[in-house]
Amino acid sequence: MAAAARIKRIVMQKVDALDERQRAALARLEAADLAMVREDGTISVFPGAAAEEDLEPPERQLVYLLMGYEQPEPDLPWVVKRAGIVGGRAAIAGTRTPVWRIVYWLRTGMSRRELRMQTGLGDEQIDQALRYAEIPRYAAEIERDVFDNVDRFEHDGVRSR
Fold first, then answer.
1. pLDDT, tens digit, 9 for 90 and up, residues 41-59
2. Contacts of 35 (CB under 8 A, 6+ apart)
3. Full-model pTM
4. Relative to the CA of 116, which of 40, 51, 83, 123 has its CA 20 to 30 Å away?
5. Which domains does the chain have, with CATH numbers?
6. CA distances from 124 to 27, 51, 120 (A)
């Protein structure tokens, strides 16, 4: 499939707003068919780019910038926040899987294997979610998210084991 056919998200970011390092990262993303620059200089990025495991840090940072992600912890690149995605809560980049759900499922007896099968996440993504939840400044946030969501989550029948 051609890159243009795969790209669905148009980002209202112009190439001329990028610095030299970001332009180099953009060139590598274009070579991997994860982004393209339109004739008017507007950048389009493939929505699945955030879930690509092989991105180098500069490319990942550019994808996050273009897609409107906030990366709370630089050493946990899979954990991001974005307004409008899972209520702006911490989630795994490129997915709609919130950190609180990973924590809750493992806490209530789901095995890592079951979690991987249920969500399609890899071990590194799960590990980063758990590390995020253990950071003192985020622990209360995750506990509050579990408390606020678990009743609705369980009663909506979302969790099937």
1. 889 888 788 888 888 989 9
2. 7, 26, 29, 43, 44, 45, 46, 49, 63, 66
3. 0.76
4. 83
5. 1-68 (no CATH), 70-161 (1.10.10.10)
6. 27, 12, 12
